[in-house]
Predict the structure.
Amino acid sequence: MSVSQFFQKILNWFRPKQRKDGTVKFFDRKKRFGFIIAADNEYFFHAAAIRGGDYRHLQDGVQVSFVIVQGRKGPQADDVIILAKSSKPKRK
């Protein structure tokens, strides 16, 4: 993490955050990243962005709430909270 990214992360803590709701489109447990679909766009997220850090139970189709932050390659989801479990069976 560069110095500018570090300070950007600190500044983001103090800015008011507007949460969005969305659905997990795809999540790869081995690579620990995925995508969330919201009404206006699709957002990348990493397992480290999941509140509580428990990504093992996350699967496609789960309803989540998140905050949009500026990532290295554009907007991405952060502070992801699982709202409702999916009715789809878990992938193995």
Observations:
- The two ends are 33 Å apart (CA to CA).
- The chain has one domain: 18-84.
